[in-house]
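Hello again,

I reread your note about wanting to compare the complex against the isolated chains. To keep things tidy I'm splitting this into two emails, and this first one only covers the full assembly. Below are the input lines as submitted, including protein chains and any nucleic acid or small-molecule components. They are followed by the predicted structure of everything together. The single-chain runs will come separately.
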Amino acid sequence: MLTTLIDFETAASKQLPDDIRAYLNGGAEAERSVAENRAAFGRIGLLPKLLADCGHGHTRTTILGVEAAHPVMVAPMAFQRLFDPQGETATAMAAAAQEAVMVLSCQTSVLPEDIADIPGRRWIQLYMQADHDATMSLVTRAASCGASALVVTLDAPINGLRDREVAAGFAVDGDVRPVMLDALPHPPRPQLEAGQSVVFDGMMVFAPKWPDLERLIADSPLPVIVKGCLRAQDAVRLMGIGVAGIIVSNHGGRVLDTTPAPITRLADIVKAAEGAVPVFVDGGIRRGSDVFKALALGAEAVLVGRPIMHGLAVDGARGASQVLRRLRDELAVTMALCGCATVADITSDLLTEFT
Amino acid sequence: MLTTLIDFETAASKQLPDDIRAYLNGGAEAERSVAENRAAFGRIGLLPKLLADCGHGHTRTTILGVEAAHPVMVAPMAFQRLFDPQGETATAMAAAAQEAVMVLSCQTSVLPEDIADIPGRRWIQLYMQADHDATMSLVTRAASCGASALVVTLDAPINGLRDREVAAGFAVDGDVRPVMLDALPHPPRPQLEAGQSVVFDGMMVFAPKWPDLERLIADSPLPVIVKGCLRAQDAVRLMGIGVAGIIVSNHGGRVLDTTPAPITRLADIVKAAEGAVPVFVDGGIRRGSDVFKALALGAEAVLVGRPIMHGLAVDGARGASQVLRRLRDELAVTMALCGCATVADITSDLLTEFT
Amino acid sequence: MLTTLIDFETAASKQLPDDIRAYLNGGAEAERSVAENRAAFGRIGLLPKLLADCGHGHTRTTILGVEAAHPVMVAPMAFQRLFDPQGETATAMAAAAQEAVMVLSCQTSVLPEDIADIPGRRWIQLYMQADHDATMSLVTRAASCGASALVVTLDAPINGLRDREVAAGFAVDGDVRPVMLDALPHPPRPQLEAGQSVVFDGMMVFAPKWPDLERLIADSPLPVIVKGCLRAQDAVRLMGIGVAGIIVSNHGGRVLDTTPAPITRLADIVKAAEGAVPVFVDGGIRRGSDVFKALALGAEAVLVGRPIMHGLAVDGARGASQVLRRLRDELAVTMALCGCATVADITSDLLTEFT
Amino acid sequence: MLTTLIDFETAASKQLPDDIRAYLNGGAEAERSVAENRAAFGRIGLLPKLLADCGHGHTRTTILGVEAAHPVMVAPMAFQRLFDPQGETATAMAAAAQEAVMVLSCQTSVLPEDIADIPGRRWIQLYMQADHDATMSLVTRAASCGASALVVTLDAPINGLRDREVAAGFAVDGDVRPVMLDALPHPPRPQLEAGQSVVFDGMMVFAPKWPDLERLIADSPLPVIVKGCLRAQDAVRLMGIGVAGIIVSNHGGRVLDTTPAPITRLADIVKAAEGAVPVFVDGGIRRGSDVFKALALGAEAVLVGRPIMHGLAVDGARGASQVLRRLRDELAVTMALCGCATVADITSDLLTEFT
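Full-complex prediction:
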C-alpha cells in the first residue's frame, strides 16, 4: 500500500527506466543540493502549542489574492509524458481533484489547448526567449488557455551540469517533446569563431537580462512571478521592477550544485519582501510538516515537483492526486497537532532547532 | 544472556511479529524524533567528581511529595497484552517488585479492577474525553482502583502519522482491546458535510481545550499531572491553572516528527517551573546514565516506556522487572562513579558537552 | 607488514579470542567514550611552521624532573599475560628497549620482583585499598622493586558497566591472576541487610575518599601522581593536598561512558595547574601526531595503553617495542614537519580546528 | 563515457596497479586531510546573481602578470611515467592544448630538455637541495628549458608518513626515475652516531631554512613562488623576503595528516598578502565550481594535481586534456549560472555556508 510520498518515490523509482529515473530524481553535479533540500527540513524542529482550539479549522488560504483550498501547488515540470502517457493532462486532472494551483511548464509535452478545458486554477511557467515577441506569443497563448499568472524561471539561463542524467544517457527525443515550443521561431544559432565560448559567446548572449524582464512585466497581461531567487538583494531589485511574487528555489538542485536549500533562504527573502509581494518556496518538500515549516517561515504557498511525478508514474492521474491528497492531509494533521486552526496561526515561534 | 536494555530490545524485536514490532518501536513519519530522543542523551557528557564519600548512599527520592525507592517510573503504554498474555498485570507485578511508580494507560488491555490488588503505587493516564462526565467517570474509577494521581496526555489530540505502523498493517482488533473504555458512552460521531475535514471538523471539535483541563482540575479528586509539554510558555500557563506536575515529553516520537528530544527541553521548563511543581521527563532513556542526566537537568523522576515492553515481550513480568532492576543498578553505579551519594547530589555541574 | 599502530590493532584483534579481545578493546556501555577518545584527536588540526631549523633536534624531555628520551609512557594495564605468556615481563623489556617510562599495574599478572632486574624507569599504579596498611604494603613493595613514583587511580572506585566484556563472557580466572595482590589481606566483605545496595552499602563504603589520599601522600616514600582527573576543580584540590602530578584520563572509556575525551579536558586542567605540577594525558593516542597535539596542549608526557597490548599480542616484547618505536618515530617526523626542533617548541599556536 | 573528473578518477583507479594507485590517491596517515581537502569545498555554498549580463564573458585572467586563458594550472607531480609511458611529455601536450600553465616537478621522469619544444607556459617546481650550487644548477637548467618561474616546495622537508603507500609496497625503482636529478651531486649522507635520529640528525640538518630561501631568491633569475604555506604569519615573512607568489597547500594531504584544507586557509592568507603578491591554492579541486569558490576567496589561480594523472592514466595526453577541458567548461558554466562574466566578477559575496 502506498501511503506517503516516500512510498510513491520508492515505487516510481523502481519502475522507471534508468534514464528517465536519472532525469527525474537526479540533479546537478554531486547532487549535494538535491540532498540538502530535503535534509534542511529535518533540521527544523516543531514546538507544538497545547490545548489550542482547532475545531472547524481549515487549510484555506489566499494565493496571489485569490482564495485557495490549501497552500500546496504543483511545480512546473517539463515533459510529463515521460512518466505517464497522459502527462500534463493527468497532472491537471489530479490538481483539479485536489484543488491545487498547477503551474504548467512551457516545456509541456501536451498542448496547453488540450488541457484548457480541465477545471482548476493554472499558471504557466516560461523561460524568456531571446526574442521578446516570441516570449509574448507564449504569454498570449497561455492567457488564452486560461493561465492567470506567469512564472518566469530565472535561475537556469543555461543548463546545469547534470552528471547523473548524462551518465544514464537521457535525451529528449521521439514522442515526448516540448510541443508548445514548436510554434516558436527557431532560436538564434550564433556562429562561433575559433576560441569563442559556447557558454559566453553563445547561450549567454541570448540569456535574459534585467531590461528583458522589465519589458516582459510591462507588456504582460498576466502578473509575473519569478522563480529561482536565493539572494535578498535580488528580491529587492525584483520587487522594484514590479514582480507579483517571488519563488525561492534552487531549481530542485538541478542547475547549480551547492546552492543552499531554499527553505534556509526563505526567512531572509520574506524579510526583504516586507510583505509587499508574496514569497513562495519549493525544493525538498516531502511531508505535510515540511509545508507547515515553510509557512511558518513566511511562505504564502509551496510548490511540489518530483513527488507529483512519482505519483503520476505509479498510477497516472490517480497517483498524482493521491500524492497531493496526502500532503493536504498531513498538513492538516500537523496543524492540529501544533495547535493551529488556520494557516495564519502557523508562526515561526512554533519552530525550533532540531538536533 | 540479556543484561542491558539494548539486549532486551534486540531480543524482543527479533521475536515480535512484524506489525506489533512496528507498533512498539515505530514512531511518526521518518522517526527522526524517535532516533533523536536517544541520540540527545549521547551528546551530554559526564564530568565525575573524585573521592566523594558515597558510602551508604542511595537512590531514594520523593515523587510528588511521597517517598520513592528510586526515580524510575513506568510510562503509560496502551495494549500491553500485545506483548505478553498477562499484559498490564505483569507490568504491575514488575513495578511492584522493583518499587517503581507505574502509570497505567487508560487504554489498558486489562481492567484496572483486575490489578487493583497488586501492591505498589500507581497513577492513571487518561485522554480527556469529549464529554466531561465520561472523563470524570474514568477518574472516579481510577481512584477507586487505587490510582493516586492522574496523568493527562495533552500532546496527542489526534493520532500521529505512524508510517511504519501503517506499512506493517498494525491494527487493534480481536482479543487485545482498551477494555477500560468499554464503559464509556460512544464518542460523538460528527456528520461531516461535503468538503469538511475529518481532522478539523471531526476530531478537533472534540479535542480538549484549556477550559476543559481547568474543569477537570477543579473536579478531580486526584492531583492532575500533564504529559506532553515542550514549551516553557505552556508550562507557565499550565501551572497557572493548577496542574500538580509536568511531564516533558514528545510521546516517544510517536505523534509529531521533528519535535525536539524532551531531554533538550527539560532545563527550560524546569526553569519556567521555578520549583513550583515537579517536572518529569520521558523519551529515549535506555541507560542509568540517561536517568542520571535527566535528574542533573532538574527532573524529579523519569518515565520509561518501550524498554519495559521489551522486557515484557521477552520474559513477562520477570523480563519487565529485570529491565527496571537494570536501570536502578545502572543509576546507582553512575551515581557512585560521579561521586553522588544521593539524588540531591546530582547537579548540572556534573554535565558537560560530549563530542 | 605491520607498520602503524592501526596495523597492530587489526592484527591483534584478529588473533585474540573473543572474550579477551572484548576485554582489551571494549569499554563502558555503548563505548561512546572509547570512540570519542580517538575521534577527538582527529578534530585537532596542525598548522606547521615553514623553514624552521630542526637540525639536531630531538624528542628528549623531562618527566617528573628526570630526563627522558621521549614523552611516550606505557600506561598501567592489568593482566598482561592474557596477551602474551611473558606478560608484564615482555612489556618491561619493550619499554626498556625504547627508553619508555613504564607504569606497572598493581593488577600485574607477573610478580614485580620478577621484573625488578629489567632495566628502565618504572612507576607503579595502585588502587587504594580499604585498609591503609594494605595500601602501604603495596607502596613499600613497589619501592623495593624499583618503582620511583606511585600512580593512584581515582576514577574507578567501582567497576564500570562493561557491556561488551560481559556479553563476551570475559572472566579473570585460571592461570592469569593479579598475583601481586595475593599478599594482601582479604578485602572486607560487608554483610548487606535486606534492601541495602551492593554499590552504596558495599563497595562505596570502602572506596577511597579525600582523607585517605591525604594520608597516603603523607606516608608514601614515593611521589604520588593521580590518574583519572577530568575536572579543573578536582585538579586544584588535588594539588592542594600535595600530589606530584595529574593524569587527565577517563580510563580509556572503560569506566563511565560519555565522559569527555581527556584531550578535550587537558587545556583546562593545565591552566588550573598553573605549572605547579606536571599534567599528563592518556586515551585514544594512536599516532605520533596525537602525542604532538597532547604536548601542544600542555601535557608533560602521554600514556599509551591498548596499542602496547596489541603489539604484545602480535609479537610479544618485540611487538610492543615496535609499537613504541613507531610512536617515537612518528613524533619525530611530526615535529620536523611542524618546524619543532624540541618538545619545548611544540606550542598551542601550531594547532587549529580541523573540519 | 567519461565526463566528469570523478569519472576519470573511478576509471583510473580501477585500472592502475595497487601500488601505483596507492601512491597516486593516497596520503599521510589516516588520510583525513586528503578527504577534508575535497569535503571542504562541499561546505561552501553558492548564491547566484540573477539576470546579470554575461554575454561575451570569458575565463581569461592574468597569472603572475601574464595573461592566461583561464585560472586552472597543472600542479607539480613527480614520476608521471608511472601513469602513462609518455609521462610529463603527455601532460605538457595536454596543458598546451588547454592553454594551462604547467608546473613541472623537479622529480620529473622525463628530461626537461625533452619537453622544452612543446609550446605552452611552464614553471618548474623544485626542492631546495642541501647544496646551494646544486639548487642553482636546477634553476639554471629550468630557465634554459623555458621555465618562467620557480615553485619552491616548503612543506615537505622530509617525507610524510604515507601508510597506504607503504602498505601497498610502492617504491620508485626500475624504469621510472627522477631523471632530472641525475646530474646533481649525491646528497650528503650523514654518519649517524648511536642514539642519533635519522630525522633530526640526518635529514633535517640538510633541510632548507630561511636563509637558504633568501639566498635562492637573491640568486634566482626566475621569480620564486613558494608552495605549502598554511599560516598567515609565514606568508607575511615570505613576502618580506621577496617571494613572487604563495601557493596555499597541504601537499594534497600527502605529508602531514590533519593539516587543514587549503581552501579553508585561503582567505586568511589572501588578507595577509594585502594584494602585494598573488595567492594560489591547490588541494581537493574536482569541479569547476571548486575553482570558482577558490577565486571567490581571493586566489589568482588554482593548481590541480591528481585529476590530471587520472586523465593521463585513462587516455594519455588526450585524457589529461579532457580533464582540463572539463574543468574549464565547468568553470564557465558556473560563472554563467552565478552571473559572472569575468573572473573579476567572482566575489566572495557569491558564497554562503552550505549545510
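For quick reference: The first strand of chain B starts at residue 44 and ends at 46.

B.
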